[in-house]
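Q: Two folds, back to back.
A: First:
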Amino acid sequence: MSRELNIPELNTPPTAQPFATPFAVQAIAAKLGEEKADQVAGAAGASQRAAGSAATAANSSPTLAWRLRRFIRRFAVSLGLGLVALSALVGASLLFLPNAKAQTAPTKPAEVLRIGFQKSASLFVLQKAQGSLEKKLAPLNVEVRWVEFPAGPQLLEGLNVGSVDVGFVGEAPPIFAQAAGANFVYLGHDPAAPEAEALVVPKDSPIRAVGDLRGKKIALNKGSNVHYLLVKLLEAHGLKYGDVQPVFLPPADARAAFERGSVDAWVIWDPFTAAAQQQIGARILADAKGVANNFAYYLGARSFVERRPDVIAALFEDTQQQAQWLKQNIKQAAAIIAPLQGLSTEIVEASLRRYQFGVRPLSDQVIREQQKIADTFAELKLIPRSIDVRQAAWTPPATVAARLAAVR
């Protein structure tokens, strides 16, 4: 009849153990005599052979040692061995196995960096196509997931609700988001690109100057960089924001309304501007030169940025490297980007030439310029409260700050 033995060691996984030796069998022989020793020796040999063949599997399955203990227990009970013999037998066989616990530490799953981008963000589109950032982050065990948004305000909403970790937008979206209580930080910015946003009218429009826009319907994406451009253009030509009729539409819908004649003008950024020029003959009434900087900002979820500043540094380094390549190879870059944006290479090339690529850490001057926009929106009641932009500026750790400063 089988006898069940209550031995705790048989029910727990093995820990770090020394290599077994034949002296375990000799110890059993001294206690049990020759006959039992023969049985134990045979059992030990069988169990060691089993252990040897199972060693590799035990390295990937820490429960195998436990199963082998169960097998030996039943084998020993069938021989009528006592507790001491059984314990020695278990030691002589299972201690042969390598340290399964130490050998089978699970590989830490890769962390995912979720990047919010727009198709109009040509540099991010290039990085995505080239896979350069994925290669840069691989040594950090970080993967990349690209999440597309139609425009900056929607991207900021994604950042606020935790759908993305970093993003790239124009001047106005972060101001609206900060006023709404979003918890993000400014990481850096691209140089000013005033030629990359403009107010356009249909090619046959009788409107010849910004001053002719009084009472007219103007399409724009609410809370985007061109929202501020419209305010400043009107101001520069003696008009107020209330003198026109803003029609808030995302770029695709605004283009459709513009072509139908449902609006009189459209204030928009590249590559949409270049596309409207080349595809339907839209005429630029004015761009941002002299009235707005048109900076673009890299933003991050505060919790992610504070936890992984090394990832942000790597992002900056790769972005700068790709920006330098783009500026030196505009035609080749346009050929890569064009099919991803659904545009011709000629349109994309024209758009790329209006931007100034190259990420920079935030400076006091840039923060002051951004504060001017926030104050303007607050005065116009476009945001519910005044904000302090500096409160959302990221202060990186010293080692990371040095890496960011070296990005040129």
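A: Second:
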Amino acid sequence: MSESTLEKVISLVRAEYDSAWYIWHGGEPLLAGEQFFRKVISLQKKYYDKAITRCGNTIQTNGVLLKSRFIEFCRDNRINLGISYEGGHDADLRPDIDSRMIEEIIAYMVKKGHMFSVTSTVHGGNIDKMGDMYESFKRMGASFCYSPSLRIGGGLDNEDLHLDADKYADMCIEMFERWIHDVDVDIPVMPFNQYISSALNAPNVSDCAHSSCLTKWICVYPDGSVYPCGKPCVEKYRMGNVNEISSIDELFKSDGFRNILVDSIERRKKCKECEIFPKCGGGCTVDAMADGDVQSPGGFSCQVYKKLFKHIAATMVRIINEKEDLSQYNRFVRDAVIGKLTNPNIITPM
């Protein structure tokens, strides 16, 4: 991304929004070089000035290019680091990754108390290693998220990456039960922790696929092209180019944004009778596109969420209604239950 495009993005966002979070991903964003991110921070300070705390940043990286100096730069500037790593159980998804080096980086950040998280891609070649991933990150003391490979982008034509919805949902349920009964665990596991929150309260806003992110998110490509989601989108959803507009508002009035709205509305009409619709809002439109029919529910993401969320919601209701002994559960479950009992008015039951 050129410096002029970068500045245009930051200036437009600042002019129209009181707060914003910038997520830098790719590809591999660190290929842009450390100076690029120093320029990012410089421009954000220029436009946000005394309101600099109203913007934040996340860099999603495979970790290969991370060095301690840059990690400290990120800490000094409140940049969250997201590491794409499977705990050494990637089944050749990332053949050039030096696992020992990545784990040394993670250990360094854990020791220093840095803001970071790990995203682990689950696919057809490593789904049976989900338990090993859990044990690896538990040992490291690093919170992580299971992220299924979708039939989109790099996962579209690679049959080895494709997942069966029932098998993945069942494995997630198995890992959820293992995690909640691990009383000594000190790491949250996503999306389980998010789904616990959504089951007991309103949908968790950090779970963008199930909290209606439209109008709250844009993805800017290096050339300035804008799409409504960071996942690969079809051309009909292209909203414009930041170098050709004078306000973000123009993007949301584009034909591209209208197209994704129409597709989302049509799908959600069919979702309304589903018992968990209030908790998922019809799911992610780009996920539905990856499932083959953007205007209809019932694809991979829908099947997985329905089966997993219903299990988690039923588990939390049972724990509360039957007044189960909380000592058999980890602290994340205990905190969620205690929060529900002390703040019953914020609950939105299914």
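Q: And?
A: The longest strand covers residues 55-61.
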